[in-house]
Every structure is written in C-alpha cells, then in structure tokens.
Write a structure and sequence with these properties.
The protein is of the alpha+beta class. The chain has eleven helices and ten strands. Helices cover 50% and strands 15% of the residues.
Length: 378
C-alpha cells in the first residue's frame, strides 16, 4: 500500500484547501454560532459543495456522483477540519451514501442522485446511549401489515434535526448485544410517531435525539436484508471512522500550526516563548505524532478503496490514533497559548471543542483499543 497521493488526489487536496479556506473558514462557523442558526450549516454552501463535486465524492457515476473514493473524501474532510467547516458532508455524503450502496435499485436511484446534487440531508440513527455501542441496539422493528412498526429512541443523530430521511438501525430478531438480528430502515422524520429534539453540541454543531413510537414503515423501507443490517453497518462505520479520522487530522494539524505560529511571536519577560527548550520538545513530539497519524489515515482510507479485508480494522486503528493525537494537539495548544487559549478571541478553543465531538463519533480511542485488546472484533 503506497502512502502517497497520486496526481488526481493532489489536485483534489489543493482544490479543497483553497475552497474551504475561502468559502467556509472558521469565521463562518463563528457566524453560525453567534446567530444561533438552528440548521447548523449554510445550505447555500452545501449546494455549492455539490457543484464542486464534494457532496457526491463517493457516489457512483451512474447516480450523478464523481466516485473518487474514500481517500479523496478524506482529503476533503481534512480541509474541513482545518477550517471547522460545518456541513452535512459526514452524515450524508459518507455515512448515508455508503449505506445506500447496499440498498435496492429504487432506493439508490431515489437518494444517491440527491446526495450528489446537494439536494438532501440524510442522517444515520444508530446509537442509543451516551457511548457508541452498535450491538446494544434495543430499538425494535416488528412486522405490521405489509411493513414494520418501530419503537425506541436514538441519541446523537448527526444532522437528525434537519434530515429529509433517516436510516434507522432496529432489532428485528435476537437480543440486545447480538451481532445478528439488526436491520436498517429508511424512515421519514415527518412520519406519525417520530419525535425529534435538536441538541446543540459543544462544538456549536447540531445533533438530535429521536423517539420512535409505533412508527409505521412499508416493506420497501428495508435497506439491505432482514436481520443483516450489521453487515451494512460494518462498511458504513468503517467509512465513517476513516473520514472522521481525516477531519480530526485536519483539526489537530491546524491547531498545532496555529500554536507554533503563536509561540514564535509571544514574548514573556522580553523573550519569545518559542525559544524555550521545553516548548520546542513538546512541539517536536507533537509534530512526529501528527505525521504518524497521517500515515494511519492515508493507509486506512486506501485500504477502503482497495477493498482490503482488514480495512475496518485499519479505520478503527486510525480513529483511535488520530483521536488521541488531535486531542493532544488541542490541549498542548491551549496550554502554550496560556489563559487566553480558552477565550473567544482565539480559535484554539474552537478546535478543542470540535475535536472532542469527533472523538466520540463512532467510538473513541478507548472503545477501539478495547475491541482490539478483548476480542479483536469490529
């Protein structure tokens, strides 16, 4: 596996770098936050991202996408991390698009072109508690007429408050904790029995709590096979972890670079603090860790594109490694900035908050390290 970018990927990286720095920099997030925008992102930006090909980056060409693969998507996510760009890219272009590749022809033709065109927002309703635990799904879907009736509750549904459709994981057989017996359903958030509560996360983004009370869906709403939803979820979670790792890499790298720039200018008792050997050692260590993390991200996303049988493990490894390194980058940044690091005047605190949220999505470092140590299962 070559951990280098080809010519097309370099062009995508450079294009994304210029685009997000101009169209969706950190100050755009500040505007969304300060105006208390309930959508949580700029719909005009989402449409423009589609026009650039970003929204459909993993959508097959026959459905209107550019189908450049997950490494290219990671290059986009990295630049979004560097600029704290708010958009439904993760929920819709990655999680939903990956899931829908396993759908019926009708489901693909209905939703994938809309994703590529930036005309829809789709949310994955998976977790139910405070921590990531897909096997702990207790939401149920029981046969009802020609379809199913769903009951349960979901938490931390990214973009769930503005979703046009949700992909809901529900148990159709087995017991809580079983791998088998989970199925996926396309659910209209406007259906009777669906209750949505918007939750503003610490990073100023939006998620939602979803309650399902006797929600009726047709048989056509089943995505994938009955009781076989975990097979689809494995590919969705691997892709999500890989792309979240790329965004973490971008956020951590930008936090590091802004910190280094700051300590090269800030003076204490007439001396530039960047000349202090202790800070130089800490900066050097962090630089090395970020480079290792970059290799993990590129390797995991390349494995996804190549269909490597161990891709899900590589993505979990990357999520664990980059989550820890990005957290360190933001913490070191705040410490080197001093007390002003947590004031609104500087961006370093915003990076710390975004990194904390990204750490939790689809499992933090402890979750993945525990899976390796205990059962080596994903």
């Amino acid at each position: 596996m070559a951990l280098v970018l080809n010519e097309d990927e370099v062009m995508m990286r450079d294009m994304a770098q210029g685009y997000f720095a101009e169209k969706a920099p950190v100050k755009a997030l500040r505007t969304l936050r300060d105006t208390k925008d309930e959508t949580g992102f700029d719909r005009g930006l989402w449409a423009d991202m589609a026009a650039q090909g970003f929204a459909g980056i993993v959508v097959p060409e026959e459905h209107g996408g550019v189908d450049m693969g997950y490494l290219a998507a990671g290059l986009v996510a990295e630049q979004m991390g560097r600029n704290l760009t708010a958009s439904p890219f993760f929920s819709t272009s990655i999680l939903a698009a990956t899931a829908l590749k396993h759908g019926s022809d009708d489901q693909k033709s209905t939703w994938l072109p809309k994703i590529a065109a930036g005309e829809t927002v789709i949310a994955l309703a998976l977790d139910e508690g405070a921590k990531h635990n897909p096997r702990g799904t207790s939401t149920t879907a029981v046969p009802s007429g020609n379809g199913f009736k769903l009951n349960g509750a979901k938490a931390m549904v990214v973009d769930g408050h503005v979703a046009d459709v949700m992909i809901v994981a529900a148990r159709t057989s087995g017991d809580e904790g079983d791998t088998d017996g989970i199925s996926l359903f396309l659910v209209d958030p406007k259906s009777n029995g669906v209750s949505t509560e918007r939750t503003v996360m610490v990073d100023s983004r939006n998620a939602a709590r979803i309650d399902l009370d006797d929600v009726e869906v047709s048989g056509d709403a089943l995505l994938g096979t009955l009781d076989g939803g975990m097979d689809v979820l494995e590919s969705v979670m691997a892709a999500g972890r890989g792309i979240a790792s790329a965004e973490l890499l971008g956020a951590g790298s930008q936090a590091f670079e802004e910190t280094v720039a700051y300590i090269k200018e800030r003076k204490q008792f007439g001396t530039i603090i960047g000349e202090f050997q202790a800070l130089q050692h800490r900066s050097s260590h962090l630089y090395s860790e970020l480079e290792i993390a970059r290799s993990a991200v590129v390797g995991s996303l390349t494995a996804l594109d190549e269909g490597d049988e161990n891709a899900s493990k590589y993505c979990a490894m990357a999520k664990a490694k980059v989550g820890s390194v990005a957290k360190l980058a933001s913490q070191e940044g705040v410490q080197m900035y001093g007390g002003v690091g947590m004031t609104d005047e500087y961006d370093i605190g915003l990076f710390m908050k975004r990194i904390r949220v990204l750490q939790e999505l689809l499992g933090d470092a402890h979750y993945h390290m525990n899976k390796f140590a205990v059962a080596n299962e994903f």
